[in-house]
Amino acid sequence: MLQFMELIVENHSHPLGIDCGKPRFAWSFAVTATAQRGQFQSAYRIQVSDDPQSLLSNRGNVWDSGIVQSRSQANIEYEGPELVSTHPYYWRVQAWDEVGVISSSEVSWWEMGLLEEKDWRAQWIGVNPDVLAQWSSGEQYSNSKPLPLLRREFALDREVVRARAYVSGLGNFELRMNGAKVGDHVLEPGWTNYGKTCLYAVHDITPHLRAGNNAVGIMLGNGFYNVNEEPGRYMKNALQRDYLPKRVQQDDLKAIIQLAFTYSDGTTEWLGSDESWKVAQGPIVYSCYFGGEDYDARKEKGSWDQAGYEEDGSWTPAAVVSAPGGTLRREMNPPNKVRGVFRPIKWTEPSPGIFVADLGQNFSGWFKLSISGASAGRRIVVTPAELLGEDGRVWQELQQKDAAWNYFVYTTKGEQKESWTPKFTYTGFRYVQIEGAVPWELSLSDQEQPGETGKPVVESLEGQLIYPDAPTIGQFSCSNPMWNSIHQIINWAIISNVKSVFTDCPHREKLGWLEETHLMGPSVMYNYGLANLFRKAVRDMADSQLADGLIPSISPEYAVFEEGFLDSPEWGCAYVLIPWYLYHWEGDAKILEEHYEGMARYAAYLTNRSHNGIVSHGLGDWADVGPNPPHAQNTPIPITATGYYYYVLKIMSEVSILLGKPGEASKYKELAEETNQAFHERFFDQSARQYGSGSQTSNSTPVALGMTDPAHVPDVIDHLCADVVARGYHTTSGDVGHRLLLTALAEGGRSDVIADMLNQTEDPSYGYQIVHGATALTEHWDGPTSGKSQNHFMLGHVEEWFYRHLAGIVRDYNGQTPKGADLVIKPFLAKGIQWTEASHLMPQGAVEIAWKRTDAGGVELMATLPPNLRAVICVPAAEGAEIRENGIPVEQIPDIRIMESEAGYVRYAVGSGTYRFTSSVPIQYPRSGE
User: Where in the numbering of this chain does the Alpha-L-rhamnosidase six-hairpin glycosidase domain appear (predicted)?
Assistant: First the structure.
């Protein structure tokens, strides 16, 4: 019988505040040791109730799907009566296996959010403009406005059984109640185009309440809603609130909150934000996503977030302010949390009184500083950085070239022990420089002894890693230590650049450059359960789309750039590619339906920009390798621009078929064919059998995107391999071209070339970064050098190759999986690799793969597949090799179906279960350059 592993609603387990009227259900199955092979779900039944007991009685009193004959187990839409805002619902699934045995899941639950605007019984509130002007004129370290605190007290005279807070604060907020932080989310809500969409969170506040008087408080932070310049602090000028015209609204800080108290008698009472709230300036006197944060502990308001607090004259009535304009939506992307801690592995004192801690890892987040022995008013300056300068101090060349730094200031309040963590900004760093305090490890040798008359002592310093609360759904390792290190630095760059947007870097810009979102999409999806963040990215792109159909190169569009930085097809095509990937990876057709019109408008925009089938604008193969500045120096921009235009048309044709739009499908197919013909007429050299300039990206683009005549592919691949080999197995491709290069080589049967590229340690290569001490993937191939970001995930495309080709877990996004199968297992036995292991969580459940070379010269391939998944396993084998499964000749095993072989592999169709294939004579792959 089938055993349930997890039940999810809208890609969440037990979600609070679902605000779509027809939520979608999914479930996965566990692999058990006693399960029979070939298990699958033949039918399911979903039951939904407002009472968990009715489900135990086999009755769904809200909705019962009935028995549905289907193998579907994901994206199944609720079809019952209209759901009610804020109400909890309970559900379970029954599943019938292949022989009709029924399994029942445990009872799970979800809770609805605020479905309509009228459900909000609250108003946006903020600081009265006159009061705000008074704050700014006071004595501060910064000319920027200090961050406000909002508070209100209320009384409860009955037993509360359930309480929720529906809250949004722009740009960021922290919710507090009765003296404590509510929840463990940070930097919420997510970044959006606030004039189109504003996200709200839902928190369970039941444990924070007490009988009688209570207090609720909100701290507000600037985020991207209020970006201000400050002299001497780093600022990405294009993002400054008053620097350029904006298409994303920015304004003074504001919040909206609605509390719901459900009592034991079944009634519900609401408390919303209005002018009865009070506001005062808090101890955060400067905060900017780019320049850092300053905290003056002398300005703390004591027990301001507790009941009975005596408000002084600094507290004034909150003002009801204008709404930001965007629709309030429940934030469904995973919330940011502190997910890890780093402590110093080394302290140094490069100059008297200046101390530097090495945390050992480049990551994004913030720090926690704990000190002792400080008199009131001592300023402790904390400067994070990715690199050290020649003098041993921290080095921020990315910021300090304009004499503007990213740093943090803590002003002590004079208590024996104090600790501080920033709240509304983060950065990427490895090193932390401290001025104004001495680490306890070095304090005994310091001439100025700590204490009342000396420096405060740093009792502890820790770096805190921040990234979304999303599960790790992939694991990879192999016998090559350097390849494992490459895998690690790519993953550090991924998690460092995932917040509520996929950012380019965690320090200099923090912008959602869209080419990374789609080019690195498969690499991210193999490793992390971030489907809802990709869905948010699609919504952000829709909100950014201009009237003429253009998708700007960044989203949300916090800066209005010009030319290619505004409009590049290799970037904007993410609006078509990401929904397509989500359909293939998650089975999500709804996102295609929701965004079809916008996707079509973008395709039409590119068509209007084309001339005789060729698109010639954009950034091209950004960051390519050569003697000139790395801005598409090797490859004509129309190669990549037109290539992705063709790919957009091809996908739109397939999406149109899927959505039942045959006329549109024919239109896009015809236009794609015309574009491909124009591309070849202009760029394909018939005699030389290569494209454009003959660069690696020129030849990779049409092959990888399916434009090249299959008869010509081998010749083009030969040219591609020859170029890579002639350069010592090094790439010349950039941000766009590198994934195309790896795809063309791998799909063209030349992963051996990729393997040799991965073994290089000279610039440009991943190995160069490893041997020079990089702990996260760097922006450019030359690795840990000044002037470059030390934490960029844009060139991490080989991560996809590790899973898809070396391990052989072939997730589909181009319709390549054979009919009747959900997955292809096809490992590449790379030269010099003795073993590879990988796992990946699919909608059906966890897939595990391991292969190794045997002492006898053969290969052993193990695969574990979850119930309801059908796979084609391609066992590497030369012609005539003996292949066994668990020691038995395969042809004698009835539940393994032999399929037609292909070069170097024997293929088998299998169902769920664990398999151990052995091949006596594995394929001998060609040498690089042959």
Answer: 473-806
Higher pLDDT, 222 or 229: 222
For the chain, give percent helix, strand, coil, nearest 5.
Answer: 25, 30, 45
Contact call for residues 191 and 223 (beta carbons, < 8 A): yes
Please list, in sequence order, all residues whose beta carbon lies within 8 angstroms of the beta carbon of residue 60, skipping any fewer than 6 positions away: 46, 47, 48, 49, 54, 91
**Can you give the residue range of the structural domain that contains 227?**
120-333
- 377 and 326 in one domain? no
Provide the Cα torsion 908, 585, 503, 498; round to 10°: -90
- Is 151 within 8 Å of 278 (Cβ atoms)? yes
Three-state DSSP class for residue 850 = strand
Q: Which residues 6+ apart lie within 8 Å of 776 measured at CB?
A: 361, 362, 363, 428, 489, 492, 493, 496, 790, 791
Specify the higher pLDDT residue, 902 or 739: 739
Please say which residue of 746, 779, 807 terminates a domain.
Answer: 807
Q: How far is Cα 812 from Cα 468, in angstroms, rounded to an integer? A: 26
What integer pLDDT is reported at residue 420 of this predicted model?
Answer: 98
Instruction: Pull the structure tokens for residue 671.
Output: 């236009």
Out of 468, 494, 526, pick the residue that ends a domain. Answer: 468
Confidence class for position 274, pLDDT limits 50, 70, 90: very high
Task: Let me know if residue 763 belongs to a domain.
Answer: yes
Could you read off the pLDDT of 652-687 as tens digits, one per residue? 999 999 999 999 999 999 999 999 999 999 999 999
pLDDT at 628: 85
Q: CATH no. for residue 152?
A: 2.60.120.260
Determine, yes or no, domain membership for 357: yes
Half-sphere exposure of 615 (CA within 13 A, CB side): 32
- Interacting residues of 614 by C-beta distance below 8 A, sequence separation 6+: 638, 642, 678, 679, 682
More confident residue, 243 or 714: 714
The tokens of 874 are what?
A: 């391609």
244/362 same-domain check: no
Going by their DSSP bridges, the two strands 897-898 and 905-910 should be labelled as antiparallel
Q: Is 201 in the same domain as 310?
A: yes
857: helix, strand or coil: coil
Instruction: Assess whether 485 and 602 both reside in one domain.
Output: yes
Cβ-proximal residues to 455 (8 Å cutoff; 6+ apart), any chain = 353, 373, 436, 437, 438, 446, 448
Between residues 604 and 251, the one the model is more confident about: 604
Statement to judge: residues 855 and 780 lie in one domain: no
Evaluate whether 445 touches 498 at the Cβ level (below 8 Å): no
Count the domains in the chain. 5
Looking at the structure, tell me whether residues 528 and 668 fall in a common domain: yes
C-alpha 849/C-alpha 840 separation (Å) is 9
Is 542 found in the same domain as 658? yes
Q: Which long-range contacts (CB under 8 A, 24 or more apart) does 605-611 make?
A: 605/548, 605/549, 605/550, 605/551, 606/569, 606/572, 606/645, 606/648, 607/671, 608/548, 608/549, 610/642, 610/645, 610/675
Alpha-carbon torsion angle 501, 505, 508, 512, nearest 10: -30
- Same domain? For 152 and 254 the reply is yes
pLDDT in tens, 547-584: 999 999 999 998 888 888 999 999 999 999 999 999 99
pLDDT of 453: 45
pLDDT of 790-808, one tens digit each? 999 999 999 999 999 999 9
Helices (H) and strands (E) in the chain, counts: 19, 48
Q: State yes or no: pLDDT of 402 exceeds 80.
A: no
Domain of residue 104, CATH code? 2.60.40.10
> Is 812 a domain residue?
no
Q: What is the mean pLDDT of residues 439-447?
A: 71
Comparing 335 with 242, which gets the higher pLDDT? 335
Mean pLDDT of 764-773: 96
Give the domain CATH number at 835. 2.60.420.10
Q: Is the pLDDT of residue 415 over 90?
A: yes
